[in-house]
TrEMBL record:
HTH hxlR-type domain boundaries: 17-117
Database matches in PANTHER family: TRANSCRIPTIONAL REGULATOR, MARR FAMILY (PTHR33204), TRANSCRIPTIONAL REGULATORY PROTEIN (PTHR33204:SF18)
Name under which the protein is recorded: Transcriptional regulator
SUPFAM superfamilies: Winged helix' DNA-binding domain (SSF46785)
Keyword Ion transport: no
PROSITE patterns: HTH_HXLR
Pfam families hit by this protein: HxlR (PF01638)
Keywords (A to Z) from UniProt: DNA-binding, Transcription, Transcription regulation
Amino acid sequence: MSTRVGTRVRTSSRSECVINQTLEVLGDQWTLLVIRDIVFVNRRHFRELLTNSLEGIASNILADRLRKLVQEGIITKSDDPTHKQKAIYSLTEKGIALVPLLLEMAAWGDEYLPTSKLQGLARTLKEGGPELRAEFMDELRKAHLAASG
């Protein structure tokens, strides 16, 4: 794993702790929000992710996070067959495996953050239990893994 520290690139983690290493990959707000939008809202193009971001992500931040997610093997980037100048981002199996983590974060926020309310697909998946979550992940595999080759 390589991360930028100032002008130097560090090729190892700060520690051998698995939580630390996971945070080095996913630990900033924007990375998780980009993954959220790909997983739960099916935003697969740069422009969709940029203009429909509820949090207002800047284009340079989005480009950096997408590049990082591709580098980490969480998503793939391929040419969109419907438009020569567009790329389409697809989840890898590694990216799909993040769904339970995202759902647990959503459930925690729903329970412990008073201004937060679990809505939409996240609520449906929570109420649907493990079977519905497994079905959702299978649907993601069909849509994303086929697209990424």
